[in-house]
Amino acid sequence: MSTAEQHLSILSKHLNLEDGTILDIGSGGGEVSLALSKRGAKVTGIECSRDQMCRASKHLRSGCRFLLGVGENLPFEES
């Protein structure tokens, strides 16, 4: 079990991740985002490194997407 899976195993005891929507800022290679999506969450990973984002995108699964961006200037329309 990966470190991300271990952490999420603990978190999932306190949070209902299934059908949740999660924004993972600084998603890196996507390990946490992918682990969250395996638990049923819809995840958007934001990463400032194009190399890391491309690495994460190679492991895409349903309910998980990765975008290039930074936390201070998120690539979403304001509402």
Please specify the SSE layout and strand pairing:
Elements: H1 3-11, E1 21-25, H2 31-38, E2 42-47, H3 50-57, E3 64-68
Parallel strand pairs: 1-2, 2-3
Question: What do you see in this structure?
Answer:
- The structure is a single chain.
- This protein is α/β, with parallel strands linked by helices and 79 residues long.
- It has one domain: Rossmann fold (3-Layer(aba) Sandwich).
- It has a 3-stranded parallel sheet, with helices on one face.
- It has helices at 3-11, 31-38, 50-57, and strands at residues 21-25, 42-47, 64-68.
- Helix 2 (31-38) links the parallel strand 1 (21-25) and strand 2.
- It is globular.
- The longest helix is centred in the first third of the chain and has 9 residues, at 3-11.
- InterPro entries: Methyltransf_25, SAM-dependent_MTases_sf.
- This is Methyltransferase domain-containing protein.
- Pfam families: Methyltransf_25.
Number of DSSP-assigned strands: 3
For the sheet with most strands, the description reads:
3 strands, parallel
Class, according to the CATH hierarchy?
A: Alpha Beta
Globular, elongated, flat, extended or rod-shaped: what is the shape? globular
Protein name: Methyltransferase domain-containing protein
Domain Methyltransferase: 22-78
Pfam family, one: Methyltransf_25
Organism: marine metagenome
Structure described in brief:
This is Methyltransferase domain-containing protein. It contains three helices and three strands; from the N terminus they run αβαβαβ.
